[in-house]
What we know:
This protein is α+β, with helices and mostly antiparallel strands. Helix 1 runs antiparallel to helix 5 (120-142).
Amino acid sequence: MVTEQQTLLEVARATTAIGGWMLDRSTQAVHLSTETRRLLELPPEHRMDLRTGLGLYPPEYRPIVTRAIHTTLHHARPFQLDVDIHTATGKRLHVRKLGKPLMDDYGNVLGLRGALQDLTEIKTAERQARRLSQRLETTLESITDAFFLVDPAWRFTFLNREAERQLNCQREDVLGRVAWEVFPEALGTAFEEHYRYALAQQEPVVFEAYFAPVETWFEARAYPSDEGLAVYFRDISQRKQAEAEMAQLNEELHQARERAEQASRAKSEFLAAMSHELRTPLNAITGFAQLLHQTPPDETQDRDQHLEQILSAGWHLRDLIGDVIDFAQIETGQLAVHAEPMAIDALARNSVAMITEQARRRGLTVHCQSDPIAPPWARADPVRSRQVLLNLLSNAVKYNNPHGTITVTWSTAGGSVQVDVADTGSGIPHGRRDRLFEPFERLGREAGSIEGSGIGLSLSQRLARMMSGDLQLLHSSPDRGTTMRLTLPRYSDDHSATSTPPVSLSEAAPAAPMRICYIEDNELNMMVVRGLIRRKTTVTLDEAWTGAEGLARIRQGPPDLVLLDMHLPDMHGRQVLREIRADPVLTHLPVVALSADAANETLETADGTLDGYLLKPFRLADLDALIARFAPA
């Protein structure tokens, strides 16, 4: 901007014309040099006096020139005037008129002499330069970018309004000052580095940097010249934030994709493992059943061993399927828990009793430790709590060292009850602990001989949290074992916790006569219940193969208990249940579901009218306990 203005002025000065003139005071004649005549477009023969000479000046300038001449003539003072003048052809010029007195030896003013310089081109160039400067300044003020100029000494020479706003400063406080004094925070930053490089190397630079004093990200473009540095910059904070958010989103998407791929791999591995886990007990069941079929009747010891293996494989298969179903129900939000007061002492000791034989076979010792004076009570779902604790105990057995120990301790801590299960196994590798509760993870044990689906701990932790508790790894050391902690909400009322021993078949047999109606369309399921009832001399069984047949038998004579399959060929078990409850005579009749349907709404609620349920396959002892529960007094 400055360079172009100077160029215009220099060109104008180079083309400036200067002529001389002289005024004779006595005759009032004005004598002009050849250059002056050319400038004023006067012919050589033209004669000029003071009056005609003053007539060349426009009316607004004429008094100014008259006063200046009069003052010089009477007071001998020189003058210099920048005025307009007309040429003989009427052209208007802007001139500089210089005059000084012409004196005799006695100090008398005889006249004036001086020069006339044409400044028209200079004036025009100055006006053009001003217009250019104003236009450029207007342009720089109107652009959306912030802009400033510094000279080679780093002093601010221009700053537009947007730069004032972006840098939080006023131009009157900045212009003429050194940039590094105004903004010392820029020293040692990318701004100083790039600006100094641009000016020193005379190369434009473009960069992005954060300016802490105004907490803003800027994109800056600096253009050097001999006059200094022109810098355009803009606020890119929103773009930077968007880029950061996009980068974070991409990272989250990348992590999510990795998790999804890992989950997909884990599920694929799980399906492969489940295929193995399911086929293993199935092979045991079918294999020992074939051996049992081929074993002579008199070899009772072999037959008993075969039966024991079939039962063991069957229960293992049931537990595998149950874990998978429970996990799926939690994932879809279909599993509910029912909290009630529960004695932790009874829960722990009954659970330990269920794994004692398994532990004995591996040479393991199981210890139980608790406060004998005030054993704690919890408020939780007894069935799900036992499921979680059995999973911990089962892992302690499976992953323990031969002839190791398992220690179960329980105590209160504030508003919680804590149950710790400690083993003396090989421990959990430190690098795998963060995946301990991820579903389908077996922590590198996939190739080992230990059975498992990899969802037990994940399922157990989710169940614990559904009961407002938690399951966590307390500590684990290589070759020294692992301790897991189950935390449940404490039940504060005072109770005496006593373990309730399992009901045996003989103890559960009702003494009074009892009639049971079993509505079931599957012959094998009917045979199982028929075989159990046949051993009870005081219990009779009415068999119905459809819902309609079952309702007809019940209405002919209400039984003491109805065992109901929920999936019948002619109607759903819920419909049978609704019709029983709608009959005033049958509305209080005990109805227990025996179903392979694991849907919580079917087994646990069934419109809130079931008196109990057993999930197939069930233990005969559990069915026997149910029969005893509803037996007539």
